[in-house]
Design brief:
This protein folds into two domains: about 5-85, no CATH class; about 85-300, Vaccinia Virus protein VP39 (Rossmann fold, 3-Layer(aba) Sandwich), CATH 3.40.50. It contains eleven helices and eight strands. It has helices at about 10-15, 55-60, 70-80, 85-105, 125-130, 145-155, 170-175, 180, 205-215, 235-245, 255-260, and strands at about 110-115, 135-140, 160-165, 190-195, 225-230, 265, 275, 295-300. Strands 1, 2, 3, 4, 5, 6, 7 and 8 form an eight-stranded mixed β-sheet that branches. The structure holds S-adenosylmethionine.
């Protein structure tokens, strides 16, 4: 059994015990002592199909959240069967986001566009940014309508944060959305966050073109932060097969392909690296744990 939660008990267990929820006591906590995921309202918006797994809800299940449904948990169990360290990878992906937002704040960034933001968890982009600068503005975008519902429920009092349902595959719809353009000032630097989302763009959806289109719309001095599934991880191919079959996306890409997302930008040290290696808070132990080898990530500045 994986120490992280019920999902690692396996597909059969998940299917037979549909109502079980994670045991929070055993879930690792953030540096602030809070769990990485927070319980949210269990409201199902009409446009959400609970019989079809979604990337946002599968990720939530892997992180130990409870904003997911049986089919999401079944896929999460399959993911863990293919890649047993998936929960560690997901947490490392959350942790690098926190370090990245802190770095962006240190560079003077006070507005963030977080695409494929996912279901609200603990230590979300706006919490990290607004803790450092209460006037920081954060626009979240996700194509899963359940994200909007849950985010709105938690952001009722927050005028500096907005959530928009839109699809990264169509960057023009995001860049021209009045909800975004009225909220962020594109004449000033923006921190564009693509944390764990571009691997959900398949090869025929022109992921590199999409990222270039987005970064081209940003003012000089803006930054792109990106993390992405890597072919380097053991069992990466098996995990890709599970994801492609179950949710239709989740491409592993090579270091070269991932580095190419930063073309035309100035890569910040240490470049494109495994997530634990990106500006770690504490000394790293090598060899890196397997879960730390599932994603590569980096940050770059728009000249
Ligand atoms: N960014 C968060 C993080 O790093 O913790 C969540 C990452 S989660 C693995 C991927 C998220 O991307 C999901 O919430 C999913 O709904 C969203 N997503 C996938 N494809 C998308 C698309 N084409 N447009 C917008 N969001 C998308």
């Amino acid at each position: 059994m994986h120490r992280g939660g019920h999902i690692a008990l396996g597909y059969d267990y998940v299917i037979r015990h549909l109502e079980i929820v994670p045991n929070w006591e055993h879930w690792p906590v953030s540096p602030q002592g809070r769990p990485w995921t927070l319980p949210g309202p269990r409201r199902i918006p009409p446009q959400v199909d609970i019989h079809k797994p979604s990337a946002a809800r599968v990720y939530d299940a892997i992180l130990g959240g409870k904003d997911n449904f049986p089919w999401d948990r079944a896929v999460a169990a399959e993911v863990i069967a293919a890649f047993p360290q998936a929960a560690t990878s997901a947490m490392l992906n959350r942790q690098v986001l926190e370090r990245a937002v802190r770095y962006l704040h240190d560079q003077g960034i006070d507005q963030f566009l977080d695409l494929g933001s996912g279901l609200p968890t603990a230590r979300n982009t706006h919490e990290i940014a607004q803790e450092l600068n209460p006037r920081a503005r954060v626009a979240y975008v996700d194509n899963d309508p359940i994200v909007l519902t849950h985010a709105r429920a938690q952001l009722v009092d927050d005028a500096a944060t907005t959530v928009v349902t839109a699809d990264v595959r169509y960057p023009d719809t995001i860049l021209n959305s009045p909800a975004i353009t009225a909220f962020l000032d594109f004449s000033r630097p923006i921190g564009l966050v693509l944390n764990g989302v571009v691997h959900h763009l398949n090869d025929d959806e022109d992921p590199h073109g999409v990222v270039t289109k987005l970064t081209s719309a940003l003012a000089s001095g803006s930054y792109l932060q990106l993390t992405h599934f890597s072919t380097a991880a053991p069992a990466a191919a098996a995990l890709e097969r599970v994801l492609m079959r179950s949710i239709g996306s989740g491409r592993m890409r090579s270091a070269g392909e991932i580095t190419a997302f930063f073309d035309g930008l100035e890569l910040v040290d240490p470049g494109v690296v495994f997530l634990p290696e990106w500006r770690p808070d504490r000394p790293l132990a090598y060899p890196l744990e397997i879960g730390g080898q599932l994603l590569l990530g980096g940050m770059a500045r728009r000249p």
